[in-house]
């Protein structure tokens, strides 16, 4: 594995690491913001002239809330496995017993205490589109009163074994259950500007990128400041396995080991669409992209590809989150 393209979390987490200034392969049209970052445990510190105001983001994904009540009765044949998947967990730092509800509440409390400028909920907040869990989470978010940005993960809209393509199921259950969490934004794509930093959220929870998402990204990345890309599934980086990221050149039916367990259509025979592969190339060629924040894998990690760091959060089902700070020099 190319050491320049991959930085071991194990080494970084204990030491904290200041990355060199951004190295770009293609000549950018305009000078990229000079940014550095460090990682200590689950705290990321960005610092550089691109950041004008101290800014704090709490990023969480993969809570896998699983509450259910009688409203779930008609759907239990589709939700049974995931409803039992993460009922008891171990805290990612203390090792003490916890559970998704407790972890979610504690993370929200911490975000409020730290006066976070934005809370990012990056998918798999729910193990399936449970009405009881949706109601509970919305009540907790309202109580916290903190601005938040939500994008779906592959479980948020998935009732296992329910007929339909992944994009059909996503469209149906986003509309029927998840819609309030988008707060009026387009479920597939949105952005939020916080203190001169633009957070672009794209839904890649089917593993594919849609043409309208590419157009959205192209338009909104044209921004006189640093941009952070938020998605549920990490983007492929060399050296990582096929299941790790969206945009792996070998992704497709041959490598799909999970479709029977998850009772979903197999990944396509032809692999990724050209749109997805081209988008992957575009992302890692974006001059003002200072990082990607993702989840899905349930193991915290960091890769640096073409000078752009991609962070995967520790799962919130075990209390995990990323504390992301942007600081002026
Ligand atoms: Fe997950």
- CATH fold naming: Purple Acid Phosphatase, chain A, domain 2
What's the number of extended β-strand segments?
14
Shape: globular
Largest sheet: 6 strands, mixed
| DSSP strand content | 15-25%
Mean pLDDT over all positions: 89
Structural class: alpha/beta
The CATH superfamily is known as GpdQ, catalytic alpha/beta sandwich domain
In helices, the fraction of residues equals: 10-25%
Q: Return the CATH class.
A: Alpha Beta
Distance linking N and C termini: 33 Å
| Number of helical regions | 8
Tell me what the structure shows.
The chain has 329 residues and is an alpha/beta fold. The protein has a single domain (3-327), classed as Purple Acid Phosphatase, chain A, domain 2 (4-Layer Sandwich), CATH 3.60.21.40. Helices cover 24% and strands 20% of the residues. It has helices at residues 9-15, 76-83, 100-113, 131-144, 166-178, 211-220, 259-262, 274-283; strands at residues 35-40, 43-48, 55-60, 89-90, 97-98, 118-121, 148-150, 189-194, 197-202, 227-230, 289-294, 301-305, 308-312, 322-327. The strands form 3 sheets. The chain has a 6-stranded mixed beta sheet with strand order 1-2-14-3-6-7. A hairpin with a 6-residue loop joins strand 4 (89-90) and strand 5. Helix 3 packs parallel to helix 4. It is globular. The model is unreliable at 1-29 (pLDDT under 50).
